[in-house]
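Board notes (copied after class):
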Amino acid sequence: MTKATSNTPKVALNCAVLTISDTRTAANDTSGDYLAQAVAEAGHHCVRRDISSGNVYHIRKVISDWVADPDVHIILTNGGTGFSHQKSTGAAITPLLDMTIAGFGELFRHLSFIEIGSSTLQSDAFAGAANNTLVFCMPGSTNACRTAWERIIKEQLDSTHRPCNFATHYLKTLKTD
């Protein structure tokens, strides 16, 4: 990734938010609501939003469609990463990734441990890239989404964050502010 300099322009990225849950609806998707609002507050655009059941193939279809869409730069998923029989996010998404970003899951679990203790052991938060699209997968709780966004993702999607970030990768293809 390109390192940011003091004169790096601000980049607005197009983000998609997918909630993976068998119980959430548009009326009670607090985690999806939080992520869409946080994306907008950071100066990015939430261009796609959906809710999927834990069906591996439905999740794959949604993610595949978004990864193939050149107008989607970032995908944020929440849900389906915990230790249960409904844990389907990893199985659905990891085969689609061209590369993984191991540090995301490690850093998320470290930060989460500080907040909730050893229960973070049950989180399989992960990230990667597919077809020039970054994919961040986090637990479904709004607090977990807040931790991931505020402590990791927000800075990494800020093209002015130094010494480096993921957003500068898009500087060549996007109009900057």
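Comment from the instructor: Residues 102-116 form the longest helix (15 residues). The chain is about 35% helix and 20% strand.
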